[in-house]
Protein 1
Amino acid sequence: MLIEEEHALDEIKHICFQELNRGAKARKHPFRFVTLALAYQNKPSSRWVVHRKFTAEQHVLIFTDNRSDKMKALKANPEASLLYYHDRHSLQLRLEGKITIHHQNEISRKYWPGVKGSGAKDYISVLPPGTPIKSPTAAFNWSDDLDDTHFVVLEFKTESLDVLQLNRGRHIRALFNKTENGWEGSFLVP
Ligand SMILES: Cc1cc2nc3c(=O)[nH]c(=O)nc-3n(C[C@H](O)[C@H](O)[C@H](O)COP(=O)(O)O)c2cc1C
């Protein structure tokens, strides 16, 4: 267990932020992947993404292809939710917030060199993600230019954090809301 009954709200918040930070740095950390939920035309949709960075402002950075379906949803509605589960410590975190899209701007250009060196293929397919094809190999066609035309950094600006620590019948739950002066927290019935 990461969160104990003796912990004050501030300690709980600190532990959660620390784990979110570790999730972006340690490849094997369970917070390395997160489900991103969006709504499009009143329908929910979720997908796994890589939790790339947890910033000093408690924002989460995610990389994607500007042509993907999630971008249609996001352009119509920036509201999003991120869901994490640390299986070893039985800890669930649910973040809610709004996403800002960074495409061919200072932020996306800052991260592109790192992507270019390793995972650029994910953002330079000739056919846009989600295109219907006759066989899987029809997708294996990439642009020769390693350029950032389709590369997008999503900046999830956290507004609330719902923490659930499972513990055999003595679960602990807390909710934190971001305000102008920092974070306001409260315990909740699990
Ligand atoms: C473990 C895992 C990690 C993934 N990471 C990303 C990611 O960082 N960015 C991304 O755009 N898609 C990622 N995907 C693929 C998405 O889950 C999804 O299939 C794809 O982005 C298309 O989603 P969309 O149609 O909602 O845009 C990942 C999938 C898995 C299983």
Protein 2
Amino acid sequence: MAAKNITKYTPGFNIHDVKKKFDIKKVVKLSSNENPFISDRVTKYINNNKHSLNLYPESKPSKLQSIIAKNIGFKMNEKNIILGNGSNEILEFIARLTLNGSTEAIIPKHSFLVYEIISKLQDARVIVSKPDLNKNSINYLGIDLDSVRNKVSSKTKLIFLANPANPTGTYIKLAEIDRFLSSLPQKITVIIDEAYYEYLDPKKDKSAISLIKKYNNLFVTRSFSKIYGLASLRIGYGISSEKNIEKLKLYKQPFNTNLFAQKAAEIAINDHHFVNESKKNNDIALADLISLFDKLSIRYLGTYCNFITFEAGKSSEALFEHLLKKGVVVRPLINYKLPKYLRVSLGTRREMNVFKKHLKSFYNAKV
Ligand SMILES: Cc1ncc(COP(=O)(O)O)c(C=O)c1O
């Protein structure tokens, strides 16, 4: 039995295993919401420089923190920022700071699975709020803030909200988040996980970072794994008041982010051309896939990220297997309590064409 009744996180299939199992040469991996592109400037840095691999990396990469602060705006400075081995690590630090065996964490249904795992590792009780069940809303199956509010008890110490959310792809307006935060006791810490924030359109005034000076109990997390294309290097960051960040740093190992991650993050965040191209590619792939889903009368959830979660109904498992045999890996969502849905990440034009071809062949569609 797994310790503490925790279901282990299952990552998307890895390319090597699929190649071997089905004896396929080319695999299209659309299961982990990665950016299909890498910044040329990052590649050049990795390939063309001498790296001091024998030395520890910067323990306090203040240059990167300053660059991030400048980039995110809202009068943040380097002391408002903590770097993590992926934003995952920041989520973990916050759970460790706030939760223990006599506390509760509220997690909206269909949330990123890591929230539950790290809360249970702290022995906290996990309270699951209801999703938005309005079928006519673009927030369908996304976060219902009223339900979250109703779950608050004297034991609540932490609330996780992803905005936009994975795997539902839904987004809640900042004014609603603001209203929600103003209704909460300050002793409850709230995380707004903005791993997919950069895919919002337009981004301006949509980030909860703008609320950090107003709410002392607020943490925002961001990732370099998505639009910045650095998933493999593992780097992300958390933003909060200087005092909160100081507290969180107690949990950070001295060298939690490595040299390549730090340097590549510096380069990628300033490579505006790359970020714009990534966003453009995502927008095109998104519009194109929505158009196909509409033609095939396939229902899909929120469309604010670099993936789409779509309804495959009873055929969900069969469609997953069909795609897998053709070398296309998407994500089944049984662990997320969405067994009738599959999630597909938005890849390159070629990758999307392969996915669309096999999706159409499954449904015998001639569109
Ligand atoms: C909602 C959400 N938060 C956080 C993460 C973790 O990202 P990172 O790679 O920065 O640890 C993911 C990764 O898929 C995610 O979907």
